[in-house]
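PROTOCOL LOG
Step 1. Enter all chains and additional molecules of the complex.
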Amino acid sequence: VRASIIADLVEGRLEGGGDPDITGVAPLDRAGPRDLAFLAQARYLSYLAGARPGALLVAAKLAEQAIVDCPRIVVRDVHRALALLLPELYPEAAVEAGIHPTAVIGPGAELGAGVRIDAYAVVGAGSRIGGRSRLGAHVVVGDGCVVGEDVIVHPHVTLYPGVQVGDRSILHGGVRLGVDGFGYVHERGGHRKVPQVGGCVIGRDVEIGANTTVDRGSIGVTEIGDGVKIDNLVHIGHNVRIGEHTIIIAQVGVSGSATIGRGVTLAGQAGVNGHIRIGDGATIAGPGGVFSNVPAGAVYSGYPARPHKEALRAQAVLFRLPELIKRLRAVERLLPAKEVSDE
Amino acid sequence: VRASIIADLVEGRLEGGGDPDITGVAPLDRAGPRDLAFLAQARYLSYLAGARPGALLVAAKLAEQAIVDCPRIVVRDVHRALALLLPELYPEAAVEAGIHPTAVIGPGAELGAGVRIDAYAVVGAGSRIGGRSRLGAHVVVGDGCVVGEDVIVHPHVTLYPGVQVGDRSILHGGVRLGVDGFGYVHERGGHRKVPQVGGCVIGRDVEIGANTTVDRGSIGVTEIGDGVKIDNLVHIGHNVRIGEHTIIIAQVGVSGSATIGRGVTLAGQAGVNGHIRIGDGATIAGPGGVFSNVPAGAVYSGYPARPHKEALRAQAVLFRLPELIKRLRAVERLLPAKEVSDE
Amino acid sequence: VRASIIADLVEGRLEGGGDPDITGVAPLDRAGPRDLAFLAQARYLSYLAGARPGALLVAAKLAEQAIVDCPRIVVRDVHRALALLLPELYPEAAVEAGIHPTAVIGPGAELGAGVRIDAYAVVGAGSRIGGRSRLGAHVVVGDGCVVGEDVIVHPHVTLYPGVQVGDRSILHGGVRLGVDGFGYVHERGGHRKVPQVGGCVIGRDVEIGANTTVDRGSIGVTEIGDGVKIDNLVHIGHNVRIGEHTIIIAQVGVSGSATIGRGVTLAGQAGVNGHIRIGDGATIAGPGGVFSNVPAGAVYSGYPARPHKEALRAQAVLFRLPELIKRLRAVERLLPAKEVSDE
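Step 2. Run joint prediction.
Step 3. Record the structure below.
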C-alpha cells in the first residue's frame, strides 16, 4: 500500500518526499524498508537514531523532534491511526462457516446461519448460537445458553448453563462464565453451600481476556454492560453489575454484589470489596483495595483506597518521616527535658 | 410454594396477612408478584420504596424498618434461610448416569456405580472415580488419580497424575490440581528444575473456584483439608497445608510450604509468603502480603501484614501527616532558629 | 539405592555409620526408615525430635545442630543435592511416542520424530512440532505455530495462531499464549479494538505455570527470553520483553510494553506498569506496583515501588506515628498556646 493511500486512510499528512510501498507496521527498532514505524510517545524518541523504516507514522506533537530520513505521516493520534490502518494491512483470514464433524451439538440446540464450530466443541441442549458466530476448538457451551451474532469464542472457553452473551462480543481462551459464586452459610463448624441459581448476562461488544472468570448471580443476575472491555485473569463475583464501556485491566478482582458504573476504569490488580458502588467515570488507579463507595468521576488508589491525590501526598510524606523525627527530637532537646518525659 | 410453607421451611414468622404462591427468589429491584424478595442488610433498605415483590424475606434486626405492602417472612439469618429454601425452589436437574461415547477411559481405570462422564473427558490409566461422581465435558484426569464419591468436576478441569480428591468436593471450570511447583536451583547463570515428585491431596466437601491452581508437593504433599472453600483464580504453592474449613477468597496467593490453620479466612488478593504459618481461626483482612507468622485468632492486614487495628490506625495517621508537618514547623518557628538548624 | 551411592551422587559426606537402602525422599515429619529426609533451614530443626528417617540429608551449616539417630549426608546446598538426586530416585515414566487416533492434525502440519500427541489434541494448519515434543490431552495449537524439540505441553494449553515456543520449554495446564493484547482507542463514547497483529515468541528452556497468560504483540513481538521461569496465574501484556533467566513468581502482572531485564526476580503478586523498564538483576520484592523505571541490580517494593530498604524504613516509622503525635502535642503544650494556634 502506498504511503499516500495510508495517509488518506488515517487522515494524516504525508511529508518528506517519496511515496514508498508499505507492507507492514513494525516498532521503530525492528522496522525494515517496507515497514511503517510509529512514534506516539516522547520516551521512544531515542529509538529514531538507529531506525531505518520505510516511513514513520508520527504524532503531531512530536513531529518537530522526530527527525528521520524517510517520509512521515503526521497524525493527531497515532493509536487511532493504527486502529484504522491495521485491518487494511493485516486483513483477518476469512473464516469458513461449518461445523467440525467432531463437534457435539446437544438436542434442541439452534445454530444460526454461517456459524463456525471447531473441533471438539460442545454445545449444550437447547442453546442458541447466533449467525456468523465462531466457537473455537474445545469450547464448552452449557445447556440453555444464548450466544448472539458475530460472537468470537476462542478455544477452551466454558459457558456454564444459561449464560447469555451479546452480539459481537469476544471471549478469549479459558474464560469461564456463569461459575457458581462464593456463597456459604456457617453451620456446625463448617459451611453449607448456598445454591447459586442466578444468571450471567454479557452485553454486546464486550471483550473478555484469557482465563478471566465471571460468576453467575446467587439469585439475581451478574451483568456486564455493552462495550465493557475486560483484560486477562480478572475475577468478577456474583451479582456484580458493570456499566457500559467500563475498562477493567488485568488481574482486577471485583467482589460479590459490587456495582461498577459506566465508563469506569479499574487499573491492573485493583480490588473492589463486596457491595461497594463505584460511580460513573471513576478511576481506581492501581493495585489496592476499594472498601468504601467511590463517587462518580473520582480517582482513587491505595489500600484502603482514598482519593489518589491524597494517597500520593501521604505516600510522599511517608518518606520524609525519618527527617521529621529528627526535627522533632531537635525541638524536644531545646525544651525542658523533665516536662516532655512526663508525657 | 405457599409463603406459609416457606416460612416453616426456613423457621421464620409469616406476617402481614395473605399467603401468596411463590415461584422464585429475586433481588428487591427485580422481584415480581410471584417472587420472594429478601433484605439482609440495612444498606438496601432504600430499595424497598419501588419494590413490588410477592413476599419479603427479612432479617429480624431490620423488620421494624422494612415497611412493605406484602407479606413478610421474618428470620434471624436471611442467608441461612436462602440456603435452606433455594434447593426447594430450584431443584437441581436430575443428572443421568452414563459414559459419553467420546470419553476416553484409560486401561485399568475404575468407574464407580452411577458415575456420569461427559463428552471428550479423558480418564488416565489406573485412575478411580467414585460412585455418582460427575466429570464434565473435556475434563482431563491424569494417570493414577483417585476421585471420591459424589464429586462434581466441571468442564476443562485438569488433574495431573496421582491427584486425590475427597468425597462431595466440587471443582470448577479450569481448575488445575497437582501442577509442578516452582522449584529450581541456580546453576551456571541459569536454573535447574527440581523434579516435583510429591502428591496433591484434596479433602472432602472442598469447593475450588474456576481457574484456581494447586501445585503438587515438591517431595511431600500439598494438602487441602476437609471443608475448605477456595474461590476463583487462587494460587496454592507446593507443600502448602491448609486446615479444615478454611475460607480463601478470590485471587489469594499462598506460596510454597506455608501452613494455614483450621478455620482461617484469607480475604481477596491476600498473599502469604513461603514457609509462613497462619494459626487457626486467623483472618488476613485484605490485599497485602503476610511475611511473618500470624498467631491463632489474629486479624492481620497490609504489606507487610500487621495486626489489622494497628494497620488501620497507621493508615489513618498517615493522612494527618501534612497537618503534623505544619504543626512541627510552627513549633520550630517559636524556638531559636540557630539551634534547630544545628541538628 | 545405598546412602553411600547417594552421597557420591550429590557430592556429600556420609556420616554416622551404616549405609541404609533408600527408596524415596520425604519431609522430616513423614519420613519412614527407607526414606531420606532433608533439613535445609534452621526453622525446621525442631522437626528432628520426632523424626525417624532412614537417613538425613543436611546442610553443612546446620550439621552440628542436627542431631539424629541415623546416618547423615552432609552437603553444602540441600536443594541442589535434591535436584541431582530426585531424577535418580524418581525416574520419569517413559513416554511412548505416537499420535492418539482422536488427535486432529491440520493440513500441512509437520510432526517431528518421536512426538507424542494425546487424546483430542488439535494441531492447526501449517504448524510444526519438533522432535520428541509432547502435546497433552486437549491441547490446542493454532495455525502456523512453531513448537521446538523436547517441549512438554500439559493438557488444556492454548496456543493462538503463529506462536513460537523454543526447545525444552514446559507449558503447564491452561497456559494461553499469543492472546490478543488489551488495546483500544476511544471513539464516540466507546472503544474500538486495535487489531493485535504482532507475534509471541517463547525462548528455550522456559517454564510457564498453570493458567498463566501471555499476550501477543500489538504490532511487534512479545518475547520471553531463554531460561525464563514463570509461575502460575501470571499475566504478561502485549509487547513485553523479558530477558534471559528472569524469575516471575505467581500472580505477577506485567503491563504492556514493559521491558524486564536479564536475571530479574519479580516476587509474587508484584505488578509492573506499562512501558516501565526494569534493569538486569533487579528484584521487585513483593506485592505492589512498579510505576517508574528500576535500575539494574536494585531491590524495590511497595506501591508505588521504592527502594526496598527505604520502603521498609518508611513502613516501620509509620507504626511509630501515634507516639510521634503524642510527643509533638507535649512539645506544643510547653510553648505559648496562642502562637501555635495562629498557624
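Step 4. Note key features.
Residues 321-334 of chain B form the longest helix (14 residues).
Residues 338-343 of chain B have pLDDT under 50 and may be disordered.
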